[in-house]
Amino acid sequence: MRFNWINAEEISFNSFLLMDRWLVRMICNNYLDWQEFIDNFSIALAYNPTVAWYFAHRCPESKPSIDNLIAMAPKNLCAVDVRKAEVFVIDAMETSVVYTFPDIMEKSCDYIYDWDKKYLLELANFTDKLVLDVGSGTGRLAFAAAEKAKRVYASEPTDMLREYMRDKIKCENIKNVIVVDGTVEQIPYEDNTFDIVMSGHVVGDDYDREISELTRVVKSGGYIIDCIGDDNRKRKPNEELLKRGFEFFYHVSKSGGDIYRYRKMVIK
Ligand SMILES: C[S@@+](CC[C@H](N)C(=O)[O-])C[C@H]1O[C@@H](n2cnc3c(N)ncnc32)[C@H](O)[C@@H]1O
């Protein structure tokens, strides 16, 4: 699905030099059964040796597939054909490339700019609570919760996004948001630490593993919240969350999307 969050024509292939290891691994592993992507990615890598070097060293486990891709690229292509391949890859990886441009992410992703914080704050009482936001991105949920909470830990595996949130904290003199590295699979906190553990657009690759990790760090009587932003997508309630004991809240976004938010009180 294309979201048009970025204009690939305006983006340098060097933006891939800003990617973290997990993103490089995902790009190199997850798309290798998509022939059109492989054809274009092999050209883009072969004709951008700095990016190829960075990928192979940043993510050594992907080096064999990177070497294969480079070896299969056609030789002596003209600059126009190389750029066509680069644009194809940038477009195809739009949802990852946008993480390397947090300003663009904040302004062009509808789920961020079209969202109202009331949709989070009505899900729980955040006042004076210790809150964890997992996969914070640009901090949509973290900064909203921080207006009420005692402290919010914004955990985010992408370096560019962590630095974006830190710049915002400095610029706006925010005192109660702490930015940390971490993934939903391995949350860097002790058991039973938080009153509220929240995320948006993060859970979904492996529900059992992710929800058991979210549950581990929430205190008994605390909440796990899944609060996506507002977009124009038509969707049904998430059966995977419902069957794991989440209740849902529904509204229609300004652009006509079906927005489901989820909450579960954890009793241990
Ligand atoms: C679509 S963005 C959503 C950002 C933010 N939660 C929001 O809703 O505005 C997904 C975020 O999850 C992060 N992410 C990707 N894989 C992750 C993982 N395994 N664990 C935690 N966060 C992850 C990405 O870096 C990105 O910031």
Provide a descriptive summary of the structure in words.
The chain starts with 20 loop residues before the first helix and ends with a strand. By secondary structure, it is of the alpha/beta class. It folds into 2 domains: 8-100, no CATH class; 110-265, Rossmann fold, CATH 3.40.50. The protein has a 7-stranded mixed β-sheet with strand order 3-2-1-4-5-7-6. It is built from 13 helices and 7 strands. Helix 11 links the parallel strand 2 (151-155) and strand 3 (177-180). The protein is elongated, with a radius of gyration of 20 Å. The mean pLDDT is 97. The protein has helices at 21-30, 35-46, 49-58, 63-72, 79-92, 94-97, 102-108, 110-113, 118-121, 140-146, 159-171, 207-217, 239-242, and strands at residues 130-134, 151-155, 177-180, 194-199, 218-227, 247-252, 258-265.
CATH fold description of the largest domain: Rossmann fold
Strand content: 15-25%
Estimate percent helicity: 40-55%
Figure out the total of helices: 13
CATH superfamily of the largest domain: Vaccinia Virus protein VP39
Average pLDDT, rounded to a whole number, is 97
Count of DSSP strands: 7
Q: Strand arrangement, largest sheet?
A: 3-2-1-4-5-7-6
The profile of the biggest β sheet is: 7 strands, mixed
